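Reopening this one. Same input as before:
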Amino acid sequence: MNGWWGRILRVDLTTGVWEAQCPTFEVYRESLGGRGLAGRYLEPEVTRRWDDPAMPLLLFTGPLVDTASPTSGRMTIMSLSPLTGTVGDCSVGGSLGTLLKKAGWDGVVITGRSPRPCGIEIAGESVTLTDASGMAGLSTSRIFEILHGRGAAAATGPAAENGVAFANVMVDGHFAAGRNGLGLSFAAKNLRYITATGHGKTAVADPEDLQDAIDDIRRLLSASPALLGEFGIAEFGTPALYDLTHARRMMPTANFRETFFSAAPSLNAPALRERYLPKRTGCRGCPILCKKIAADGRPLPEFETLSHFTALLENEDLETAMAANRLCNEMGMDTISAAVTLACHSEIEGVKLSSADILALLDAIGRGKGIGAELGRGSAAYAASRGRPDCALTVKGQELPAYDPRGVCGMALAYATSTRGGCHLRAYPIAHEILRKPVATDRMSFSGKARIIKIAEDLNAAVDSLTACKFVFFAASLEEYAKVFRAVTGAPSSAQDLLKIGERIVYRERMMNARNGFTVEDDDLPGRFFTMPGSEREHILVPPIDRGAFLDARARYYAIRGLDKKGMPTRAKAEELGITWKS
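Same output, byte for byte:
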């Protein structure tokens, strides 16, 4: 094959046996790779408990990985989410996907449970299971020091060992596979780390056509102010979005009770750059390089982390946000969920957390000590145990990111319909509602948003399966990436073909969630968004979300997605998409 090796590695940690499997070309063509192919392997086992040894842990590359395709240095990690019970996945950068592909593997399916803490080391066709008992209690940075020289690496930290429901998998030191508690999925298998190295090269069908497609994409990137402009993501990283959300009165503040933080202008991307003198880095094969590393070696927080560890917690100290980001990475836990859980705790207790409180509580969560053990279950479980479920700002049990839905109606709908819980990246309507790409839409209206969200979900499912970075689509489109896909694989394909594959992927995820009991009641937002206004100023009104308009948009989304009126998948639509029906 071109673009794929045609080989999947299966590892049974209970027996220590591994084998190579060779899916047909049709399987690859229908699922692409990444999120799509991982979902195909998750589906048969999805009704098991997340910690059942038979529940697969999946790491999948895509056909564009290890080629010259722009932003192709990504991969998907997937399992059933320990935090939400939904399909749990993350597209993560770094070099692990590329080196796994160079080792000759399109993906890894891990089942079973090791009798002792272990690691998996992949070096070409050699696969070794190691004893990782000596890594107990070690921070992720210490583990990466130990693994230095063994290729790309993914590892968990103390948070996973101590049962934190939003534990992350860290890749290459500071790339986080986060949001769904996938670190806890590693821990359930007694798996501490994975390394990969190899020297193969993924075959490309037409290198000349690929170069033409790359040139087209690079021209579009160069013309994008949001990406390569003076104030864009390449210059400032994702914190470039900080001032945009602040100015539009949509910055979640004080646990989403307000949408404006007066100290924000002193905590923005220019303030980070002036104080920490960052250098640019990023995923392999990326011309944007959005990751920023401070002069002292610490990674700068992403936008969502910066916003939540400042405005959401009413913290005016930039160094606290830096320290919190580093501590979460060292512990191996999701920064968004951690910050929202602290904000929930702050509201329930009626106290404003000091800088010392924030860092001490994060440490306690990661180590499972005292109140940290309760907070480590996530804000929904914690708030319910305290009799204050209204203080948990989650969808399907997953904490909400740093875009208040009262100021972006498309995001409100996207949060509710996301198959992995409250997530900004499934549809990412910020592109058109805030950055006005590819066209501007009215952020304070649900008009047209049902169809836009459905199409964006399909597109991003295809992007996560190819794989590529969503940021590129601020400038390029699926038309350009269909040309890339054709050049790499030699398979005839249009943008509409890829979009149809994305639709199949999303529908399969809706089917898997439905089999695990998710219903229309779960496609909803926390109540305060429908009753409390945001922070307003002259000419910028942030009223509560109109409940009727939201429900109407959700109903329209269901109809466009091919679901019934209760949001449930139908046999007819599944068969239309070529998905085997399972009730």
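So the earlier flakiness isn't reproducible anymore. For the record, The CA atoms of residues 102 and 265 lie 45 Å apart.
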